[in-house]
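Lab manual, section 2.4: Encoding a predicted structure.

Procedure: take the sequence of the chain (229 residues), apply the prediction step described in section 2.3, and record the output as structure tokens. A sample record is shown.
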Amino acid sequence: MNIRRYPIAGLRRLPLIAVGVLFVAMGAQASVEENLERLYATGNCPHCDLHGADLFGASLWRTNLEAADLSGSDLSQAGLYKANLTGANLNAAKLPSANMAGADLSESNLSDTELYKAKLNGAHLRSANLSRAHLVDVDLTGADLRGASLNGAVLWGSILTGANLQGADLTNADLSEADLSGANLSGVKLDGANLIAANLSGADLTGVDLSVVDLAGANLTGAKLDPSE
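Recorded output:
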């Protein structure tokens, strides 16, 4: 793509939408190192190539990283509180102990991601891909996971109290000892899922086939079930 070069002062004379398009194109073409400089200087880097970047412990609260490529990056212990990561690629990224409370990760790719002890309470993960993600001891209290793919994900001991998982795919997921009390699991796919010793008290399990789930020792007190279950 040929991009006409404008002096910085000249940007003031460009229509606002043109300036936005120009910076998106610059982010897509720049190197990872250049994009890191832009991220730290401006606090935003939508559509940027940041794959494999070292962002360990970075403070990125409310940062705009929409559709950014963060695949394989190290975001361990990073602060991503209420960050915009809509449509971002975080495949195989490292996010243990990261704070993503309230972050928007809708339609993002978090497949094969390491999220051990991450904070995702109140996060927006609608239609996100979390296939095979490692979510042990993660806080997902009140998170929006409607339509998300958690196929083969490991959520052992995670907190999903009051989370909305309506229509999510939890095929072969490990939810042993997870706290799903009060969660909305209506219409969820649980084929081959492990819910041993999970807390499902007060959860909505309507439209769910529980015959294909291991519920040994699970707490179903007050859970909403189909009449046939």
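Check your result against the sample. The helical segments are 16-29, 32-42.
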